[in-house]
């Protein structure tokens, strides 16, 4: 399968490396330093598994349409990345978002109806240019967006499994995207504001109660929008906190590095969706405001 990874950073490079290893025709589209390192020395994976592969790596999307574009930028970069890639989106090209947050698939739907939603609980971090650390093995769930499953999604799940990823198909991927976003809307800002590990939220009654209230608020919005969950976000919250006890969440890491966070696509989107139907989400608004304040202090 001809695959472009649009936004080859941490998670995109991991997926790209695994798919290259099984002989798929992968092109990584990333930043200059990463692309140069890959072209000079290959793409090295360390951590859960260790291997080096030699995918094609470029800074601009090639014009030939691929079968699949894996969208793996941070959510705030999706609109621009897709705009730059629009000439390569052919009639038969599918776009799969494996990003966190809400709104990425809707951005992709502006260019094609062939859109798959995805969530992944794999962990990856770019150790240095050309080297990605697979920090934790998880599951990837995909499905036609917003719901349904089709032949291409089935084919892709089989390909992911062959590549060494645990993968499943869901009939209601929008439900998974919302469930993950709701969980992130609680863990990420609380961890970022308090500067604590995910496990500390589980062990502190005040923080856990707050996280659970934020999840309830998000669920009320999702329910009003007719979103159905395969797994309830409250259950996902507890499971995620237990499984990622030792993690400093990605929002805290972004703030520590002076980078922009994905808050506008997590709590920000929940606020937007609630406003559209006249609901108030004061907890999400408070967390969003505090993270925006923290972001502006580090600029
Ligand atoms: N890392 C993880 O373990 C997981 C991440 N996710 C989600 O996946 C998404 C990606 O996360 P992650 O991989 O950590 O992010 P990274 O920042 O590591 O990777 C994204 C990369 O895409 C680059 N990029 C952005 N726009 C373009 C463009 N137009 N052309 C080429 N390259 C571009 C970025 O460069 P620059 O920084 O210069 O903009 C960056 O190198 C996020 O939504 C995240 O929440 C989900 C599960 C796990
Ligand atoms: C699951 C969790 C909360 C792990 O830290 C995450 O998705 C993140 O950090 O963004």
UniProtKB/TrEMBL annotation:
<dbReference type="InterPro" id="IPR003710">
    <property type="entry name" value="ApbA"/>
</dbReference>
<feature type="domain" description="Ketopantoate reductase C-terminal">
    <location>
        <begin position="173"/>
        <end position="295"/>
    </location>
</feature>
<dbReference type="GO" id="GO:0015940">
    <property type="term" value="P:pantothenate biosynthetic process"/>
</dbReference>
<protein>
    <recommendedName>
        <fullName>2-dehydropantoate 2-reductase</fullName>
        <ecNumber>1.1.1.169</ecNumber>
    </recommendedName>
</protein>
<dbReference type="InterPro" id="IPR013752">
    <property type="entry name" value="KPA_reductase"/>
</dbReference>
<dbReference type="GO" id="GO:0005737">
    <property type="term" value="C:cytoplasm"/>
</dbReference>
<dbReference type="Pfam" id="PF02558">
    <property type="entry name" value="ApbA"/>
</dbReference>
<dbReference type="InterPro" id="IPR050838">
    <property type="entry name" value="Ketopantoate_reductase"/>
</dbReference>
<dbReference type="Pfam" id="PF08546">
    <property type="entry name" value="ApbA_C"/>
</dbReference>
<dbReference type="InterPro" id="IPR008927">
    <property type="entry name" value="6-PGluconate_DH-like_C_sf"/>
</dbReference>
<dbReference type="InterPro" id="IPR013328">
    <property type="entry name" value="6PGD_dom2"/>
</dbReference>
<dbReference type="GO" id="GO:0050661">
    <property type="term" value="F:NADP binding"/>
</dbReference>
<dbReference type="InterPro" id="IPR013332">
    <property type="entry name" value="KPR_N"/>
</dbReference>
<keyword id="KW-0521">NADP</keyword>
<keyword id="KW-0173">Coenzyme A biosynthesis</keyword>
<dbReference type="InterPro" id="IPR036291">
    <property type="entry name" value="NAD(P)-bd_dom_sf"/>
</dbReference>
<feature type="domain" description="Ketopantoate reductase N-terminal">
    <location>
        <begin position="3"/>
        <end position="146"/>
    </location>
</feature>
<comment type="similarity">
    <text>Belongs to the ketopantoate reductase family.</text>
</comment>
<dbReference type="GO" id="GO:0008677">
    <property type="term" value="F:2-dehydropantoate 2-reductase activity"/>
</dbReference>
<keyword id="KW-0560">Oxidoreductase</keyword>
<comment type="function">
    <text>Catalyzes the NADPH-dependent reduction of ketopantoate into pantoic acid.</text>
</comment>
<dbReference type="GO" id="GO:0015937">
    <property type="term" value="P:coenzyme A biosynthetic process"/>
</dbReference>
<comment type="pathway">
    <text>Cofactor biosynthesis; coenzyme A biosynthesis.</text>
</comment>
